[in-house]
Amino acid sequence: MVTNQETLYSGDTVKLRCDISNYRDWTYHWLINKERLSSQTSKTTTISLSDQAGQYQCQGTRTIRPQNSYLSSSLHISVTALPTASVKASPRGPLYSGETVTLQCDISDNRDWTYRWHRDNQLLPNPTSKTTTISLPDQAGQYQCEGTRTRQPKKTYLSSSLTIIVASLPKATLTITPNAAYTGETVTLTCSVGSDSGWSYTWYKDNTKKVVTLSGRHNTTGATFTISRAAESDQGLYWCQGEIQSRSISTIISDPVTITVKERLVAVLTLQPNWPQIFRGETVTLSCDIQGGEEIEYAFYNSGKSVYTKTEPEYRISPAKNGLYTCEGLQKRNGLKHSQTSNAIQLTVLGKSVFMGLKEKDRKDKVK
């Protein structure tokens, strides 16, 4: 028989007793899962769980008749797993120097636990509650918890380790597109901090690191600060910084990035030859003059539709075609607009000219 019929847990000890109704002077033999335990010859035996769970039987022997008793029926000794403890931290990482962290020990079932906390495999004598608060960086380490109490089960499994480490403050990174802008363009500033989880952002301008004031042309969305219709007043040095306000954490401020804003270059479109009348079959050339337009391409348009893009500033039309022509400069590296749109030239081609076949000098003389 089992002397204690409560639920049995790993680590418990159980005393078994073998009763034989008749006679005395028995030597008692114990079997587990039908295998004899040779060293157990007393009326009682004590087993430790869970390594000795199984089917138990007993039998008596003696030197006089009857020499053997019947083998007892089987008694099944089973083991219930101890409750499991686990540790979680708030806030969840990364964690930074100067922060306080709350650790909580959760136990899967039962109540009335006294909580024991371990750091780096050493029992901490003071905290006995479900939660404990630690300060960083001094109390970083590997934490485990377990529960104990006066009734069954008397303890839990020791939790797995939760490592609390102190991370270095990240540095914000600022990117600006484009950082050399033209008046009226949209400029986008993007601030990034590692995985970007949980950060809000503050933006600074110029050497005073004054917080950027939002206006009708400025707005923020998450990690992005947008300047629409850029003006010369938007020029300057910009920084950004990430913050987790609920934890009073700020990143290292970003390196500064310069924004320049300037007017687009002026484009002037001219027609050669500049006759008062252009006739069918004649050849004309449009010239796009952009001062300071190195490393650009010249784009020509007819009624707003692109008809010619080259690195040369001239567009030869042979034969001449009707249309409203303009030109502008494009940045060679990315195709973005580099100049203002030029003046427009209306080209109207007439029927066959009486001057067709004349040399240019003769035509000029007759026009005079």
UniProtKB/TrEMBL annotation:
Keywords: Disulfide bond, Signal. One of its GO terms (molecular function) is transmembrane signaling receptor activity. Residues 1-78, 83-163, 170-250, 256-343 form the Ig-like domain. Gene3D superfamilies: Immunoglobulins. It comes from the Eukaryota. The keyword Secreted does not apply. GO terms for biological process: cell surface receptor signaling pathway; immune response. SUPFAM superfamilies: Immunoglobulin. One of its GO terms (cellular component) is external side of plasma membrane. The keyword Lipid biosynthesis does not apply. PANTHER family: FC RECEPTOR-LIKE PROTEIN 4-RELATED, IMMUNOGLOBULIN FC RECEPTOR. This is Ig-like domain-containing protein.
